Amino acid sequence: MEAIKLIISIFTPYIVFGTVILFAIVLTEFIIYCFTGKIRALKKFFPLIQIWYVVFLPITFLLYMDLPNVNDCCVDTAVFSPNHRLGIYLLILFFITFYCISFNRNKIISPIIELLINFFLLMGIALNILFCFHFTEIVPIFGFFGNFPIILLLLIELSENQKMLKKHIEKNDITVNGPIGKISLYILSLKPIFKFPIFLIFLIPFITFLTLFLLLFGQKPDSLIRAFTDTYRHGFSQLDYLCANVQCGGHFLCSIGAKGHKNIVKPIRYGIRNEQVIICNRQLLIANAFEDLVQEKFPTTHKFIRRNYNRVGKLTHRYYYLFEVKLISDLVYFLMKPLEIIFIIALYTFDKKPENRIAIQYLDRSDISRLKKHSSFS
Length: 378
What we know:
The chain is mainly alpha-helical. The chain folds into 2 domains: 2-239, no CATH class; 253-377, no CATH class. It is 68% helix and 3% strand. The protein has 16 helices and 2 strands. The protein has a two-stranded antiparallel ribbon with strand order 1-2. A hairpin with a 2-residue loop joins strand 1 (267-273) and strand 2 (276-281).
């Protein structure tokens, strides 16, 4: 799974670029379709666009953003609760399967299959609306560029199904045997304003049946709801309070180096970060002072550096138990020495009072205010 995630990470810029371009095509196609009732924009490539959005993109998203992840306050957290995600995965699989059946057929199938196709397409719209709200916290643009086009494609497919079914009923005298077939044909023959509300009513027994099925695999009766709520930092998350007192970002490289043997890393004092006490040595203070300087002088550059360095923090946090070993912290301290020299040269080059900036790092506000009262800190 880590190998798959690494491969997707490499191609992420291309996936994002392709998704944005195809989003513009889908939006254009939908607007044209609303006025003309026909698929016109890049008609030959429209099946590929459908496969990209309804098959490739959801599977890629789940493999990259959800399946490899667990609930974690400090690193990439799971989109759906790891203990309850099975039901959501089944729903996604159902709607993808019936969407593929729908756009690959050229004629009406049996009434029961047609009923299921329309039902799961409508369910797919409902799911993607929920996903738009659930993905807003960590990946806010995914709902817009990812789920919104899927909703548009599903609406087009539902409309095409309705037109195909209407033509088929008008041209053919359909005879259906059995009560289920007759009920299916009757529902399909209704106008959309009556038919789609019936599909929504069908969601209740379907969800009930799915819940009973999931119980066989150890899932709880409310697992479909808890798949959304038992998560961190997402739209429907209800477990954010568990992260309230968790210290994140404490496993960056210089912080790790400061935890080594005292005679090597030479701790100076304690400091405060995220309301937690940390050990500070000169290397850590210099590194943070350098970041403070970059943030002050070059804020745009600082955002880029911080965003990429946070990835290092997430990686080290995942294996934080290794960095409790002092010998490893000593090694990190020595590896950071060349950067420490570069940081101190930059501070003495671009800052009028570099030692003042170094001295106030990781102090609380009261200590900083008291120091700044002295002339040397003004």
